[in-house]
């Protein structure tokens, strides 16, 4: 049904793997098949391969169980016959009966793990042929009343296999042909039946076998339809998940600059504070473009938007992409959070951001600092020892530092320093 390489993941002890997404062409094929009549469903190509992958574990388990039970029943029946039947009859049954258990067990072993399709097909068809032949020959060798009885049992064995083996239709038809041909050949040599009776009995049982094959075909088609419906549902769920992910990205992203917006930043920081995830010093940088309103008035809002986009990109390029947080805080302000840094590193990042913006030489004819766009940065810190510093406190301190940078002439970095706390006050706070 499929090769070993393609099925190894399906039989992993860890369980089934997540379904792979459908390609556009496969999705179109799924819709085409589902829009037509159920009886016309035919899986081909990649869809057929995926269907076989999905079905293999269940099919293999059913085949193995059936083979083991058939072997067990054969041995049990032979033991009961040995206890109940004449010794001469039992001895005649032993040789053909011993053909069945090895054939069934070997087939179960082959289907114990994924193998090439040709090996699986050959093992099942050869195993079924030997099993049916064994059951039929037991009756032939025993003779008398056992002749007809065991040939009927042989057809029952074939019918049960056809019914429960979810294998390709060609394999099912082959098993049916085995059973009917063996029945016809062995009955033809039955000394107790005339030729007309043999033909009539074969035709009678053929109707039942054919009906079973048709039922198996219907079951296969319904299984394929269920698979197609699952594929369509999985695709729709994936599309819905993608749409939700896009909406989530839009909700947390500033539409102009493409970086995080204020809402996402504050939610992230609140979670950080609430769960105490910070392990060292947390630095907060409040960055503001100097004389940005004048830039908009002189050059227009289009140039102002381009300035914001470029400054956002410069800030992102100056921080650690895998750890630091950058957002547009509002208007021309940007908020940067640096977790797990020391004060020296944080100040170095702030200076690098300021210098990089200045070096970009973005025009700002309205600036009193110079001909280019410049940035003022306020820096505040919180360590694990600062348990009384809330998120709002830290943000207020970064704002105050930014305000001092603006007052000092802009285009510079200002660091907020908390006044030292007396030893007695610290002890009182801890006791409180």
From TrEMBL:
<keyword id="KW-1133">Transmembrane helix</keyword>
<feature type="region of interest" description="Disordered">
    <location>
        <begin position="1"/>
        <end position="23"/>
    </location>
</feature>
<dbReference type="InterPro" id="IPR029787">
    <property type="entry name" value="Nucleotide_cyclase"/>
</dbReference>
<feature type="transmembrane region" description="Helical">
    <location>
        <begin position="123"/>
        <end position="147"/>
    </location>
</feature>
<feature type="domain" description="GGDEF">
    <location>
        <begin position="280"/>
        <end position="418"/>
    </location>
</feature>
<dbReference type="InterPro" id="IPR000160">
    <property type="entry name" value="GGDEF_dom"/>
</dbReference>
<keyword id="KW-0812">Transmembrane</keyword>
<dbReference type="GO" id="GO:0052621">
    <property type="term" value="F:diguanylate cyclase activity"/>
</dbReference>
<feature type="transmembrane region" description="Helical">
    <location>
        <begin position="90"/>
        <end position="111"/>
    </location>
</feature>
<dbReference type="InterPro" id="IPR050469">
    <property type="entry name" value="Diguanylate_Cyclase"/>
</dbReference>
<feature type="transmembrane region" description="Helical">
    <location>
        <begin position="153"/>
        <end position="186"/>
    </location>
</feature>
<feature type="transmembrane region" description="Helical">
    <location>
        <begin position="66"/>
        <end position="84"/>
    </location>
</feature>
<feature type="compositionally biased region" description="Polar residues">
    <location>
        <begin position="1"/>
        <end position="14"/>
    </location>
</feature>
<dbReference type="InterPro" id="IPR043128">
    <property type="entry name" value="Rev_trsase/Diguanyl_cyclase"/>
</dbReference>
<feature type="transmembrane region" description="Helical">
    <location>
        <begin position="198"/>
        <end position="215"/>
    </location>
</feature>
<dbReference type="Pfam" id="PF00990">
    <property type="entry name" value="GGDEF"/>
</dbReference>
<keyword id="KW-0614">Plasmid</keyword>
<protein>
    <recommendedName>
        <fullName>diguanylate cyclase</fullName>
        <ecNumber>2.7.7.65</ecNumber>
    </recommendedName>
</protein>
<keyword id="KW-0472">Membrane</keyword>
């Amino acid at each position: 049904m499929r090769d070993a390489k393609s099925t190894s993941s399906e039989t992993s002890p860890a369980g089934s793997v997540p379904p792979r997404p459908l390609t556009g062409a496969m999705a179109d094929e799924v819709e085409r098949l589902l829009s037509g009549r159920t009886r016309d469903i035919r899986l081909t190509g990649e869809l057929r391969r995926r269907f076989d992958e999905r079905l293999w574990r269940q099919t293999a388990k059913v085949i193995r169980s059936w083979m083991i039970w058939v072997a067990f029943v054969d041995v049990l029946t032979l033991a009961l016959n040995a206890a109940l039947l004449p010794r001469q009859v039992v001895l005649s049954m032993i040789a053909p009966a011993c053909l069945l258990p090895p054939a069934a067990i070997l087939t179960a072993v082959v289907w114990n793990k994924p193998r090439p399709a040709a090996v699986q097909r050959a093992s099942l068809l050869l195993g079924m042929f030997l099993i049916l032949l064994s059951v039929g020959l037991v009756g032939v060798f025993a003779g008398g009343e056992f002749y007809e009885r065991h040939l009927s049992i042989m057809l029952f064995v074939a019918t049960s296999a056809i019914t429960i083996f979810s294998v390709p239709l060609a394999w099912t038809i082959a098993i049916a042909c085995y059973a009917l041909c063996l029945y016809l050949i062995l009955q033809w040599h039955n000394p107790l039946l005339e030729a007309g009776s043999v033909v009539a009995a074969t035709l009678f049982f053929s109707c039942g076998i054919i009906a079973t094959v048709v039922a198996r075909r219907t079951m296969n088609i319904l299984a394929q339809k269920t698979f197609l419906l699952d594929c369509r549902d999985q695709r729709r769920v994936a599309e819905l998940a993608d749409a939700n992910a896009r909406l989530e990205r839009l909700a947390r992203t500033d539409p102009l600059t493409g970086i995080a917006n204020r809402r996402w930043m504050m939610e992230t920081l609140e979670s950080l504070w609430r769960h105490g995830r910070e392990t060292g010093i947390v630095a907060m940088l409040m960055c503001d473009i100097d004389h940005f309103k004048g830039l908009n008035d002189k050059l227009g809002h289009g140039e102002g938007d381009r300035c914001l986009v470029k400054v956002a990109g410069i800030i992102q390029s100056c921080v650690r992409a895998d750890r630091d947080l950058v957002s547009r805080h509002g208007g021309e302000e940007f908020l940067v959070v640096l977790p797990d840094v020391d004060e020296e590193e944080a100040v170095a990042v702030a200076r690098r951001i300021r210098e990089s913006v200045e070096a970009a030489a973005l025009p700002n004819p309205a600036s009193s600092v110079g001909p280019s766009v410049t940035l003022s940065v306020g820096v505040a810190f919180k360590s694990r020892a600062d348990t009384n510093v809330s998120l709002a406190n830290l943000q207020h301190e970064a704002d105050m530092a930014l305000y001092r940078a603006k007052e000092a002439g802009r285009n510079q970095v200002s660091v907020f320093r908390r006044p030292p706390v007396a030893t007695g006050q610290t002890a009182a706070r801890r006791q409180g």
